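FIELD: query
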Amino acid sequence: MKNVLVIGGGSWGSCLAKLLVENGSNVYLWEHNEKNREIMKTERKNPIFSFEFKLPDELKIVDNYCEVLSDEEKYGRIDVILLATPTQFLRAVLKRLKNCLIYNIILVNVAKGIEISSKKRISEVVAEELGDKEYSYVLLAGPTHAEEVAMKLPSAILAVSRDENSAIQVQKIFSNQYFRVYTGTDLTGAELGGALKNCLAIAAGISDGLGFGDNSKAALITRGINEIFEISKYYDVNPKTFMGLSGLGDIIVTCTSNHSRNRYVGEKLGKGEKIEDITANMNMVSEGAETIKALYAIIKEQNINAPIFSALYEVIYKGKPVNELVSLFMSRNLKSEFV
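FIELD: result
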């Protein structure tokens, strides 16, 4: 039995907490919203879900994650911390977490994005904030919607870390008959794929919102993947990673599924709604709507050829008419596909 602390009680955090309990781990979960935390304690459900599933009675909802880490006599020694906090809020959690880490631990992150202020990947933010603390960092990423995992529908995901042994440990802790975990070591590539697919899903959703068909969306996604390859050159990562679970797999599910909050944001944009109104009415965070800010800055600074991602930012935050995203895509100079 492993002792696991989950920091973040959103859809993915609570879903994976449930899975870990069912896999035999002893799990503590902290949710930052006090009202939601109390509902989870007393009613054993997550109020942000659009459908209901029961939180296991064995899952312990806690008010202070530092207390869990510091009181081994009461809570046991924590083996794994699952970070299920949105990218743009993670640094604040890490600053507090640094004061609580007193022994070597595995950190498993499930957020996907690039920090706006620093343009850094999440592993870089973690390294910066935790400094000389002892930990192993593992990213859990792939084509997995929390809703379907909660319903125990067959899913596959990737545990990726520069420390292969830590990835294997996470693989063993999370795997079961409906949740298959593979391992990998290209952390930068997996982080990049997970972040950029959220932006691409917004573009795919805009196509849906404008009423275009499968042909349009397939072409947009494919050319978007080509831009991801262009961006990957800046990071000097293995392009093969983008054909795996954390790349193509995640792109397919996020760009096409009705469960995808990023695709949903794009659909609303395509129907003429403003980003601030869309996000204000969402219970969950659209990572893509935030990541595109950092990505646009990188594209401009490094002079990367990424017209779809550039136009996406300008549609969302610069008032460019939404149909110009598709117009730009269709009216560019004729060229060879891979030039």
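FIELD: remark
The first strand starts at residue 3 and ends at 7.
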